[in-house]
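User: structure tokens for this one?
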Amino acid sequence: MQPSPIIEARNLVKQYGAARVVDDISLQLFRGETLGLVGESGSGKSTVARMILRLIEPTSGSVIFTDSNGVQQNIVAMKTRELRRLRRKISIVFQDPYAALNPRLSVQQILAEPFAIHKEQPSEGLQARLLSLLEEVGLPESALTRYPHEFSGGQRQRVNIARALALRPELLVLDEPVSALDVSVAAQVINLLRDLQTRYGLTLLFISHSMPLVRYLCQRVVVMQRGRVVETGTWSEVCESPKEAYTQQLLAATPELPLS
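Assistant:
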């Protein structure tokens, strides 16, 4: 018997005036897997991710979240206090690693922020937890006292990943997390994400326009075009035997990355 999905989006719609950016999207994400949501710019994939997190309000539809205790909640119907509690369980890493960080805060302040917001004290102590987060993402202890402008793009994205992991979320949403990085640096970050997913059994929703990245990182793939799902399946079904001409175009359009 297949377990309940950690996320089940049902008939999501996002409409701005007469334009439907997302048109009746349904998808399931199961605990411990990495699901790729892939499509060209403007396909609506990032809008879907933001609706799942309630960073933007859906025009209609529902998003059912099942936590590790089996408790189900409709994210779309949550009150503000419930949403705040949800933020401990679902984190996001955005596309632009610099814009996502407050330039006036040190890395120590950035990583400590989630604990202050949610009034949570790590069992091992805050300082020990912050150092552990840096180790998890491959940054030295000395990074704690530095500021975002002192890091490269890839290092900044590692800081963002560390912050997203701070409260040990059940689900990590990755919205084009390497598209702003050089190819070699992007490959390093993708390998880091794969290692973290394996080490901690994380559930990942990976949004990308790059089929090679999706093929490398994801167990299942959902392909979007113009606000609709046009193809879905395991990575081998979608990437090795695509049924849709649009999926074939995506596979042909993006170069391979030096992943290992």
